[in-house]
Structure formats: C-alpha cells, structure tokens
Amino acid sequence: MKIKHLNTQLVKRTLLSVLLSFVFLISYAQDNEQMKTIFGGENISHGGYGALNLYYSQIDHRDAILIGAEGGWIINHKFTLGLAGFGFVNDMYFKDINDNIKFNLAGGYGGLLIAPIIMPQSPVHVSFPIIIGAGGIAYTSNDHWSRDRDKWYTHDSDAFFIIEPGINIELNLISFMRLSIGGKYRITSNINLINTGSHVMNGFSVGMSLKFGKF
C-alpha cells in the first residue's frame, strides 16, 4: 500500500510539473509574439494595385480577344480582395442564312476577385485568382451592304453567372510594377442565344497583366 501511495504521489507531482511548464511556455510565447490577424495589427501590411489585362481565348470556336481591368486590396502581401471586369468580342464570320452579313458574339463580365499569393516576396511567384460574378453576351451583326453598313445590330442577348479560376506566374519587375502571365477557365450558367450552344462561353484563356501599385 505504501509503494502504491508513493507512485500515486509521484504521478500527481509529474503531471503538475508538466502542466506548470506548459502554462509557462504559453505565457512566454504570448509575451514575445503579438497576435497576427487578417485585417489589422502591427505585423500586417496593406497595399493595393490596378492592372490592365489582355487575354486570348476562343468563343463559339472562333478566336476572341478579352480586354479588362482589375483593382485590389493586398493584405499582408499574401491575399488579394478586389474587383475585375472584361469585355470580349470574337471574329466576325458569315452565316449561311445570309452571306452578305457578318455575325459575331460580344459582351462582358465582371465581379469579385479573390487571389491567394504564394511566396509574394520572391522575384517570381504564383497566384491563384478567382472571379465570381455575372455578365452578358449578345449575338450581333454588321450589314456591309446596307446604307447603315457601320451600324451594329443586336439580334439576341442573354445574361449569365460566371466563375473563373486561374493560375498566374508573377514577376516583380520593379517595386511598384508586376508582370503576370497565366491562364484561366470560364464556367458559366447556361446561355440561351440563337445559333449558339448553352455553354458557348465555357473555355480556357491565356494572357498577361501589368499591375501597378504597392505590393
């Protein structure tokens, strides 16, 4: 019984010593390290930028150009929260219904931009932008044989919801300018438009951006 009592006391003392040591380590760490938060604190850096974007894609199996702009708030160099928008137009082409008239698709989209940034202080690093928003697309034509040959006609249009994830390789050219090269993939809700499929906007695009700001 005496040995059992001594073992019990030893276990209690050991546990108490471990607990006190743990509490001391936590207290020491709190005294020597400030709490880090997402939106504030002395250890958090805030920046911002604006960018011009130029991308190539295919829409309805025709070459298309997407021109856009974006702006964002950069939190602690590692996360971007902002807005982005693009306008697009694909190649004009003849349709069998009338060989005198050229048709194409044009429109735009935009919305919320979020982008985690990996190793932002490195001269070459990676970001993962995602656009979540909405847009519109129109089926248009230009009658080159009519008196109003410079006038564009909208035959049909529709709106859509879009999610566009991507991946970029970014180069820190100078302290206030970055070059971003990458690709992304458009995913939209079903589109109801004459002479087109319901997923006419879905597809890859590749391009580049020039960003100016405080990173």
Entry keywords:
elongated; 215 residues; 10 strands; Porin; mainly beta; ten-stranded antiparallel β-sheet; 2 domains; 1 helix
- Decide which structural class fits the backbone: mainly beta
Provide the CATH topology of the largest domain: Porin
* Residue runs with pLDDT of under 50 for 5 or more positions: 1-8, 14-38
> How many strand elements?
10
Shape: elongated
Count of alpha/pi helices: 1
Mean pLDDT: 82
The proportion of residues forming helix, as a percent range, comes to: 10-25%
Broad CATH class of the largest domain? Mainly Beta
Largest sheet: 10 strands, antiparallel
What is the CATH architecture term of the largest domain? Beta Barrel
Query: What is the string of helix and strand elements?
Result: HEEEEEEEEEE
The end-to-end distance, rounded to whole angstroms, is: 70 Å
Q: What is the total domain count? A: 2
Radius of gyration over C-alpha positions, nearest whole angstrom: 28 Å
What percentage of amino acids are in beta strands? over 45%
Provide a concise account of the structure shown.
14% of the residues lie in helices and 60% in strands. By secondary structure, the chain is mainly beta.
Helix/strand layout:
Blueprint: H1 2-32, E1 46-59, E2 62-75, E3 79-90, E4 93-95, E5 98-118, E6 124-127, E7 130-143, E8 152-174, E9 177-188, E10 203-214
Antiparallel strand pairs: 1-2, 1-10, 2-3, 3-5, 4-5, 5-6, 5-7, 6-8, 7-8, 8-9, 9-10
